[in-house]
What does this fold into?
Amino acid sequence: MNDRLRWIEPPPDASRATFAQDVRAGLEAQPPRLDCRYFYDAAGSELFEAICALEEYYLTRAETEILAEHAPTIAAGFRQPISLVELGSGSSRKTRLLIEALLAAHGSLRYVPVDISRTMLEATTRTLLADYPALEIVAVAAEYEQGLAAVRSVDDRPRLVLWLGSNVGNLHRDEAADFLRRVRDGLAEGDRLLVGIDLRKDRATLERAYDDSRGVTARFNLNLLARINRELGGDFDLAAFRHVARYDEVAGRVEMYLVSTREQMVRIRDLDLVRRFAAGEAIHTENSYKYSPAEIDRLAAAAGLRVEARFEFHESVPAGLVAAQAPGPGERVPPGSPVLLTISRGRAPTPTPVPPTPAPTPTPTPALAPDEVIVPDLIRLPEAEAMRRITASGLMTTYNNYQTVDQVAPEARAFFLSVPPGHVVSQIPAPGTRVKKGTRVHLAIRKE
Ligand code: AVJ
It folds into this structure.
């Protein structure tokens, strides 16, 4: 149907356990566990997207901020059109920043998203192809392992392989090194790998990110039980399990559990399985490992990779204070060793809604310099359209803020409520402002 789109769908790996087999093994184990890769059915993928938009889930914002700032530099590292391979592409939302920079640098790009959710891939490839006429897509509906094989077979262009979102955090540290080594083995001279890794940080920030106030992460976790009910004829009572996220500081990982709130029996028809849960018994559903800069060095070394560049973003540390140090505290080094400090630039500004400005009366102003543009008026536009206009004007997008009416100053509420959900309520810089090309435009979107 579209000559810029090709699908690769390897047959399911027969040696790999099925959902049914994994659920049986996990629930028969003591303590019980379920594999986090089963979170991502259609409902779970949607809930994960909602998590990424949460104020408390800082990971997406941090990574977006990093990509917005460094995508042009990353693109400039390649002299000719490349293949951009992404493991676990999801909505490809953050990847747009790189896609845009690579298209700007080379005029064309082949994007190779690898994802287990075919539904998600279908939706994202459709909009990406519509948004970027010079983009070609090879969509790989597969798990990482088969995706890796596909990556090797796709083509002979230089490759930038992306593994974003701190997905590396779901693997134990030694598994992560093994996996990265296999990725490395598929790379050729001149190829690059960009990995998004969440840094270790304070417990409060972490536990808030994995147990948000709106209960989205709780629903995401509980969707595993709902999925067992849907696909395997289970009778889990979702109200009788509680979402728990706790940070194990020594292991450096956030652990998620589903805790049985009472003694109960659960039946899974298709598995012919009956499982008793004691009150307080916990099913382990996910680990999210966090890394110190030194742990990242060790990970790279164990995978046979050299760290060429690192881009860090810290927002829980106020501007001007030390956000990170390398070597880390407590490390043994020779006297006179250099200590690298990363100084925080603080939290990114949160745009607040401004009432719509009347259309600016065109006053004669000095001509625009070649590197200047006028910020377009994005107020009341649907988010996607506003994002398109930002890039079309030579400006850059960044993460957006999603606001509800209770986050808005009383005098701005009437205006806020006049804008439909999903549309822009405010922007920084304001419409009509004269700025340098490439300036980032922050949007606030009405959430509900
Ligand atoms: C997609 C695995 C990176 O661990 O932060 C989000 C999944 N779990 N909230 C993460 C997740 C709970 C996420 N990863």
